[in-house]
Amino acid sequence: MSWFDAILLGILEGLTEFLPVSSTGHLILLGSWLGHESEAAKTLEVVIQLGAVLAVVMYYRARLVDLGRGVLARDPGSLKVVLALGIAFVPAAALGLLFHKIIKEVLFGPMPVALALIVGGVVMIGVERLQRKRGQEGLTRLEDVTPRRALIIGLAQSFALWPGASRSMSSILGGQLVGLSTAAAAEFSFLLAIPTLGAATVFDLIKNGRALLEAPGGLLALGVGLVVSFVVALLVISGFLRYLKRFGLSPFGWYRIVLGALVIVFASRG
To the nearest 5 percent, what fractions of the chain are helix, strand and coil? Predict the structure, then answer.
């Protein structure tokens, strides 16, 4: 894998990790187009998410420091947020641990990704229309995420184990369905990315990191990909939050449907 390939993967990861379009799905499609079929390449497509995790930590550093201080001081609001994040993290972590091998063997391909893109796009548009009919802004404070709401968000996030479904889409939609405003659901989703993507990265490194590091150009590709994905993701986060407040999720839903249909057409033609 060349450093140029790593730059392309890093840009794509940074652009798509926090948009509800599935970064893993896009990385699989790009990797397939570039001819990456090895275990090392598939591992890089997961581990490169660490750059986006670090971008979230950087963007929310003040919020995270306040949460840490609040937990140490036993502040009820901070404790509720941390507990909610912990509960929401568990379902995807448990299912990912159980089905990690099957997911990589069966779902890491263009056709499964295309189907997930289309299904996710339809669901996204449907939930957005449901929100408009309700005519309510929703809860705006993360402190309002109760354990029950957190569990529902966590179960929704589990659908992102299907590459192409999108972790951010699943968790944002889960937040909307339990009554959060779109902005609050997105913020909770971003913070939830820290333990979720962090755990996925560490787990894949333990399982397959040796293959990546021993592959020709593997270490260079990893370093370049992480730096690029960090920078791009950091630029995307704030812009996406502003966009959500103005336009909502529906445009991303239509994008997913069109992209999924195109992938199916090209895949069927070989």
Answer: 85, 0, 15
Contact 224, 11 (CB under 8 A): no
CA distance 14 to 172: 18
Task: Please choose, from the candidates 231, 218, 239, the residue with its C-alpha nearest in 3D space to the C-alpha of residue 47.
Answer: 218
Cβ distance 151 to 91 under 8 Å?
yes
pLDDT digits (tens, 9 = 90+) for 210-223: 777 777 777 888 88
Asked whether the CA dihedral 246, 66, 228, 163 is positive or negative, the reply is: negative
DSSP for 55-111, written as a single string: HHHHHTHHHHHHHHHHHHTT-HHHHHHHHHHHHHHHHHHHHHHHHHHHHHHHTSSHH
User: What's the rounded Cα separation, in Å, for the pair 25 and 138?
Assistant: 30
The number of C-alpha atoms within 13 Å of 18 and in the hemisphere containing its C-beta is 35
Q: pTM for the full model?
A: 0.84
